[in-house]
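We store chain and fold; example below:
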Amino acid sequence: MNIIDTHSTNSYQSIIKYIQRILSITQIYHLEISQPKTVIFLIIQIINLLPEINSLKIHSLSYNHPKNLSNEQLDMICSRLDTRKIIKFNVQKMIITKQIFFLIKVFPYIVYLKVDRIRSLNIKSYLQIRDIFKEIKPDNHLRSLCLRISAADHQIIQTLQKMIDDQKLLINYTIKRVIDNIYIQWK
């Protein structure tokens, strides 16, 4: 299922009604939201409607939520969310490390995380990747990270591998490049 426009409150309500109609016919296992800066509140509402969903693809993430909803109410909604079912998450636009930590916290059962459209790896990007690996705890389920880098080459692989090894960020991992995608998997 692909949702394109998520900006207005009317749009929220129409999306919810549309999903409810679809669910009377079929189940939804994958949700793609193409709208830039998808509001986390909307994602949470939609996930609560979809009992069989296991993967999400979003353009980018926003923490904004409707003005009439307090942070406490949002926390309460998140606490009721069954996040065990979401195991694959794809973010099309590179987001800040803090947002990736948030995703891992809200969706602790993610096994596969893909971040698309990284133009190039600079020092800041390497530090963000390092911070992601430092945040991963043994009880996290995340075991695979895919980075889509338009200028991916053998040198980037070597630099990532050196960083991971020198800082002991991962044990028993593999890293490979397939065209513009860099796959890092660990046990």
Notes: The first strand starts at residue 2 and ends at 3.
